[in-house]
Design brief:
240 residues, alpha/beta, Spore Coat Polysaccharide Biosynthesis Protein SpsA, Chain A, six-stranded mixed β-sheet
Amino acid sequence: MKILALILARGGSERLPGKNIINLGGHPLIAYTLQATKKSKYINRIIVSTDDAQIAAVAKKYGAEVPFFRPKEISKGDSTELQAFEHALRWLKDNENYAPDLIVKLFPTSPFRTVEAIDKAIELMIANPNADSVRSVRLCTEHPYKMWRIENDRLCPFVPFNQKPKDAHTFSYQILPKVYVNNASMDVTKPSNILEKKSVTGENIIPFVMDEIESIDINDKWDLVLAEEIIKKGLNKNLF
């Protein structure tokens, strides 16, 4: 199978400038994702989609291809993943006549994702050919039953009272139903989702549950501080 790792790494970042190549434990952040990806026994092509020359140079140094630059108009804060996927697939088809069988989407802001996790997610997708995709999630630490909106200076439940047990917002987490949230780590998806369904994941999605450390997603300085502490204490799987 032609399995493409597509790493989305635009240059702009409002909360943590230059975050995709910011130093973490002596290496640029994106390098952790590239190190894990290169060790996969299934991925046979690694491409970084970026609009930034500095990111491109670092990506190439750590073993990725950067055969194109993503246009600036689809590299903004409000640009979608779908736009980046469509651009990459269209460019590869038009310029190289290359079309992958599966795409593994990886974000460089998840440095502690392991090669074992990547390969297990791919195996899960291969074992379920009728699925549209596999999406990584983690157990939600802030339950939606305990979430609120503020309207007219009053708390209104995010999940309406009539859609949950009475006083569920006062329950301990142990007795609430388990809820999972995207952990911004990875998806394994079919090109047909992007090209035909105009969706990154489609609707028939298999969950891939990851632990808290592998789910660390660096978006601000506090995330970076936490990641540094994890490395110092040796709680992550060392990729270098």
